[in-house]
Amino acid sequence: MIEDAINRNCIPPGGIFVEASSGNTGLGIAMLAKQYGYRSKIFVSNSCSQEKISILEEAGAEIEICDNSNGLGDFQSTQFKAQSYAAMQPNAYFTNQYYNTQNIRAHYKTTGPEIWKQTGGHITHFLCGVGTGGTISGVGRYLKEQQQNIKIWGVEPTGSILQHYLKERSIPAQIAPFESIEGIGRNFVPGSFDPTPVDHIFQVSQDDTKAIATAYRNETGILCGFSSAAVLACLHQYAADMHLKPTDTLVLFFPDHGSRYISKLYSENTKSVAHA
Ligand SMILES: Cc1ncc(COP(=O)(O)O)c(C=O)c1O
């Protein structure tokens, strides 16, 4: 997304890359902006973990904390504020991860080939969390081009709408707030979600995700990120439905690690509710 904006002269030298992010895409943008000689301004939700905000600041991003409790269309939301800030600043460019086809393309060009190569072409199933949809759409498209039979499976929190959208190609008549898992789960269909390569989307609860994260840490000493734990919870809950064979190669996609969620995932019992 950054390279595309620079190549198309969408941002003047030294300009500001702007994004609404739960932290991780924002961090990628902050790092690349710095490396290419630009500034970055990231609008994060007040539900974002303090660890992620600190890392963003260390990477040089300017941060603005927003309130997504009334949805991403609300004027106080990250998405709304990022978009309006970029519209009013002539030297700013909104990377717009939810509606930028370069999001899918980046995963098609890099993440997909990396997974194909690392599994020696033996991958049979790919399981990842779905937020903007960029990962599953880009990786899924690439993998299916290599081998049409690879199963592409997504995971989202219970109550998110992409499972319904994948099956019905419509949004549910009623969308209730749901318990969030940071990075995944939506109450709208992002433009960067291409359902074409996706075979199924599973849903897991916030409680099960937290429980599995803790169990995994206790057994392995590995702290996994929130959406990574959702993928583990999915495998745990739906293993019987997956009909996996001993010869299958299932890739579980872990976008980040648990050190960014110590305060939220590993030592806090409060629930967070997503409206967006
Ligand atoms: C921690 C984490 N998990 C999952 C996702 C979802 O990935 P995608 O937006 O490609 O669907 C993100 C997105 O930034 C993320 O930060």
UniProtKB/TrEMBL annotation:
Entry keyword set: Pyridoxal phosphate
Xref: SUPFAM superfamilies: Tryptophan synthase beta subunit-like PLP-dependent enzymes
Keyword presence, ATP-binding: no
Any one GO biological process: alpha-amino acid metabolic process
Cofactor entry: pyridoxal 5'-phosphate
One Pfam family linked to the record: PALP
Residues in Tryptophan synthase beta chain-like PALP domain copies: 8-256
Protein name: Cystathionine beta-synthase
